[in-house]
Write the C-alpha cells for this entry.
Amino acid sequence: MIERDQIFINGKWVPSAGTDVLEVINPVTEEAVVTIPAGKPADVDAAAEAAAAAFLAWSRTTVEERAGFLRKLAELTKKRSDEITRAVVSEIGQPYAIAAEAQGASAVVDLESIADSLSAISWQEQVDHTVVAREPAGVVGAITPWNGPMRMVCMKAGAAIAAGCTVVLKGTEVAPLSSFIFAEMCADAGLPDGVFNLVSGTGPEVGEAIVTHPLVDMVSLTGSVRAGRRVMELAAQGVKKVALELGGKSANVILEDADLARAIDIGMEDAFRNSGQVCGGLSRVLVPRSRLAEAEEIAVRKAESYVLGDPYDAATTLGPVANVHQRRRIREYIQSGLDEGVRLLTGGPDAPEGLDRGFFVRPTVFSGDNNSRIAREEIFGPVVVLIPFDDEDEAFRIANDTEYGLAGAIWAGTDERARSLAGRLRAGRIRINGSPVNQRAPHGGFKLSGIGREFGRYGIEEFLEYKSIG
C-alpha cells in the first residue's frame, strides 16, 4: 500500500484541510493499493492564492528560461519512467510494456515537444502601427483523466507552465500517482514556488472548487461530455476561458481500393489500446458492403488474438478496464447491442474464461449499422462495430452521422487519394493509411468532442491571450 498523505502547495508538501482519504483499487487484483487525501475547497483556496502570487514573476520569465524548465522535467521523467510505468500498471492495469511506451516514453516526448515548440510561437507581431502580443492567460485550473494519467498532466500543466501561466491541478483520483510524481519533479527541477500546485480529491469537491475559484482565470479539462458540460456551466459564472477535450465515436473509413486487412488490423489496435479506454479510438469500422464478410473474418481474428491477463506477463496484450463501474458500464453496452439485435461476431458481456478476478472485459466485435446505441454512444471499452456502406458518399455520411468529432481515419489505395478526402470527414484529427499520430500537430475535436487543441505549439497557445498595444 502506498500512502500519499500530503498535497503540494506553494512549493511544499502540506497536509490537506480534509481528514478523509480516497482509495485506489488495483483493477487486476481488486485490492486497494494507494490512498490519497480527499481534498477540500480550503485546499483549493490555498493553491489558487499561491498560483496567483507566483503568476506575475513567472509570466515575465523568458521563453528560454521556461523551455529550460520543461527540458529538466523531461529529463526527470525519463529517469523515473520505470516508477511512472509501474504506478500506471497498478492503478489502471495497462500491460507494463504498453504503459512504458504510452505513458513513460510518450510523456518525455510531450515535454520535449512543448519545450521545442516555444520558439515556434509568434509572441509579438506588428500590425500596421500596433504591436500584437501573446501573453499568458493567468492561473490555470487543470483537471486530468485516469486513462492517460501522466501524459495528460504533462500536456496540460506542462503546456500551461510553458505559456507562462501558473497551475492548480486536480489529478484524477482513479490513477493519482502520476500527478504526485509530477509535483515532485517540479520541485526537483527548481520550478519557483507556487507555479505548480496539486490538490487531490474528487470532481464535485475539488474540481468544482477549482472551476469556480475567483483567482482561477482559465480551466482545462479532459473528461466526459457530462464533465465538460458541468465545467462550462460553472465557468460561465465567471466568464472564464475553457479548453475541453471530451469524448469520441470515431470512424475508421476503409474505401474499396484500400488494404482491408491492414486497415482493420491497425484500426482495431487503435480502438483497443488501453482496453478501449481512449476517447479518440476508432470504434466504428466502415467497410464496403461487398467486402463485409471478409472484413468480419479479419476483425474476429484480430479481436481473438488479444491475450488478457497479468500486466507484467510479456504475453499479455490487453489489460482490464479501470474499475468496477467501467466494467459494469461496458458490459451493459454489450448487452444492449444484443438486446437491439446487433449481430455479435465475437466477445460478449460475460467474464473472459479463467479471469474471475479483475475488471476484465472480452474484446468484442459487432456487425450492424449506425443506428444502435453501441454505434452512436461512447462505450470507452474494447468494443467495435463494423458498418457497411454502398458507396463513398454513404461512407462519409455515416462517418459524420455522430454527435462527436474527435478523430477519424481514411484508408485508400494511395495516401494522396485518402488525403484528398480528409475534408469530407468532420473530425479534428485524421490519420491517413495508418499514419502515426504526430505529437506536435494539434489534437482536439469538433462538436461534442470539445473546444481547443493540445500538442505542440497549439497546446501552448490555448493558454495564451492576445493583447494589442499602440
